[in-house]
Description:
Blueprint (H helix, E strand, L loop, with lengths): L1 H14 L5 H20 L3 H7 L4 H28 L2 H18 L6 H29 L5 H26 L5 H19 L28 H28 L4 H16 L2 H8 L5 H17 L3 H29 L5 H30 L1 H28 L1
Helix pairs in contact: 2-6, 2-7, 2-8, 3-4, 4-5, 4-6, 4-14, 5-6, 5-8, 6-14, 7-10, 7-11, 7-13, 9-13, 9-14, 9-15, 10-13, 12-13, 12-15, 13-14, 14-15
Amino acid sequence: MIDQAQQGVKQKIKKEKIWTRDFVFICITNFLIFLGFQMTLPTISLYVKHLGGSDQLIGAVVGIFTFSALLIRPFAGKALETKGRRIVYFGGLIVVILTLGSFGFMASIALLFMMRIIQGLGWGALTTATGTVASDLVPASRRGEGMGYFGLSGNIAMAIGPSLGLALVVMIPFNQFFLICAILGVIALLVATQIKFKKAEKVTVQPTGKKILDLYEKSSLKPSILAFFITFTFGGIATFLPLYTAQKGIDGIQWYFVIYALSVMLTRTFAGQLYDRKGHKAVFIPGTLLVFIAMLLLSWLPSTSMMLFAAFLYGFGFGSVQPALQAWAIDQAPQNRKGMANATFYSFFDLGIGIGAMIFGQIGHSFGYSSIYMTAAVSVFMSMVIYVLITREKAVR
Length: 397
């Protein structure tokens, strides 16, 4: 009887579909949004240089974007639960489209800086909503696998976006380039109108009758903190690697982003399922070890082949760890707190990128670009130490 019951549960799990109509649509919109965004990722530093900015200003322009996204995420997470997914999603998407289209018309770095703040607010709301909508559409029993597939839509954009962006900026003016990025967002907006969004939950109230305004989900803090130390490395790669390779006379920077994204895509085929079956312990340490090695290789960077090997290792490691940490953060949260859990995760995700970009701007200016990646390696090592302490503490309890 027990064996039959277990078999029945397994069959039920297998019948729970991931690829529903709405899930396909949210993946398509995520791809288009990320494609436009990823096209700007390696080119924004070139644009700041074009406007006469220094390495410190590049770090500031990149960092302020992630900090403004960080500020809005807790409120976006709360709004997802009280106002509903639709209003947060479309509000954020419209802001991102308008700001992307305006970048090429900024006459100074100061104006660009202010517009990046506004874009960060839209991006923070949009990505918090997108991840939450995706988690709504995925069966709980297959959340690791489903979120891995959802992440794949963004990773495919990573494979295309940076290289396409770097190719386009040498062919067309910056204003036309940013308009193309905005048009991709408009297409995403049209597709998103076909998605059925989850309705808002009833607002929980305290005995006094006041609404509870939580700024984070406590149960999701541990995986979110770990994500911070991993994404800290990302600011150094996306922002300064094109400048670093140019300084060293190494060609093929566009292929770095292609190899990285293809490597991430490869991990999506199994890492999520591995998390669902065995948990984060089977994914985190192996993945972060690969990221650690990649950072050491980039600090050395003797050749194009070594750069591409580092891209493979980084993509394989990051692609394994990121969806596992996100699924862990969501799984820990109560059913009516999934939006806030996603906001907490992405807040630390953004914080890592933003602090990394700003710190690396100062490190690159004072000690050279190589020191950026050695510092990033230290950050990854710290994440492994913290993970061991967290899991050991839980085992003791």
